[in-house]
Amino acid sequence: MARRLCSYEWPGNLRQLEATVERLVRQTVDREVTLNDLPTTLRADVVELGVGTLDLPPYGVDLRLLLTRLEDRLIGQALQRTGGNKNRAAELLGMNRTTLVEKLRRRNVA
Question: Does position 2 have pLDDT exceeding 80, yes or no?
Answer without folding.
Answer: no
